[in-house]
Amino acid sequence: MRLSHTLIATTAAALAVAGVTAGASITVGDRTSAAAQTASVQTAASVSGKAVVESKRLGSTEAMQAASAALAAAQEDGAGFVSVSVVDRNGQLQAFVRGENAASHTIKASREKAYTAAAFGAATSELAKRATGDNAGLRDLPGTLFLGGGVSVKDGDASIGGIGVGGAPSGDQDEQYAQAGLDAISK
Q: Where is this region: Disordered (predicted)?
């Protein structure tokens, strides 16, 4: 089966956008080993001749702590009408909180920003700058949103999740609140 030029170009563009990562590295809890801190996905021992893959992600306590801290930061600024999503590397929701009077669209926006940051391992404000020109097609990837408001959660250098905020008056403010969530769980 041949890959189309479009698929190859989109894959190349995705790699180009993901090439430079930004965001704080964290150690998640005291339960991670030194080896686990260097990669978010690792191949474990063979089971019946087949490789088994393990994925790292935040624990539920840390995910809720990050979401709560992000909302609290927004509330302190008088912007408690945001939604906050914390997702794992694959975009699966781990924690969510919706502030009072948060509009419906903020739910989806926060989750998509969180997933975009997790998938590409960088803040969505930086990714938005890179998803232009030949890389503009990335903006059409389902489930992603290249607007400020998402930060990557890292274990060492590996992205293991994302925190996304939607609903503040600007993407910069959304990202400030997402960063407050990350700071709450960083060491």
A: 164-187
> For 87-110, how does the pLDDT look when each residue is reduced to its tens digit (9 = 90+)?
999 999 999 999 999 999 999 999
- Contact assessment for residue 83 and residue 96, using Cβ atoms and an 8 Å cutoff: yes
Sign of CA dihedral 91, 152, 13, 37: negative
Confirm if 14 and 44 have CB atoms less than 8 A apart.
no
Instruction: List the chain domain ranges.
Output: 22-185
Query: Tell me, what amino acid is at 94?
Result: Q
> Burial level of 72, CB count in 10 A (0-12/13-18/19+)?
middle
Distance in angstroms (rounded) separating the CA atoms of residues 79 and 105: 16
Domain over 22-185 is classified CATH 3.30.450.150: yes
Is the backbone of residue 51 left (phi > 0), alpha (psi -120 to 50) or beta? beta
| Per-residue pLDDT tens over the stretch 110-167 | 999 999 999 999 999 999 999 999 999 999 999 999 999 999 999 999 999 999 999 9
Mean pLDDT (whole number) for 160-186 = 97
Question: Is-contact 131 20, C-beta < 8 A?
Answer: no
Band the pLDDT of 45: cuts 50, 70, 90.
low
